[in-house]
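#lab-general

N.A. 3:47 PM
ok so I finally got the sequence cleaned up, no stray characters, all 145 residues accounted for. can someone with queue access submit it? mine expired

B.Y. 3:52 PM
send it over

N.A. 3:53 PM
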Amino acid sequence: MGKRKMTNNEKAGFIAIIGGILMLLAGITGAATWAALGTLTEGIIGNDSLNLVFQILALLGSLGGLVIILGGLMIHGKYFKMKKDKRVKIGKLFITLGAGMGVIGLIIFLVLALFSTDPAGNIFGAIGFGFIGLILTIVARQKTK
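B.Y. 4:20 PM
back already:
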């Protein structure tokens, strides 16, 4: 008896888990970026009236990679006992939310990096694991059935 082939959803779940891990390792979850943008905004407008908004966005951004991993586990299906359609829909939603926060965080990070003392080094660092992880999460979402 040989090993059975993985289903598309099992492959997509595995890809999403790897993508989420890479995003966490690279720090492209959006949390630090939203916090930095909040500090920058506070410096520009002179008060902290938007502080709560940026704290909430940083909290959601910090969960990006973890939400993607959870979505990947749901799509994979081995660890959650619920109807396949419901499990896959929730998993896709989690991946979409996590990847969306990651994309927004990456864009803001790249814009802020352009104004730093070493823009090339910062941009090169962000494009590494984080960018690959983000691409993997998008591929995983498209691969689910």
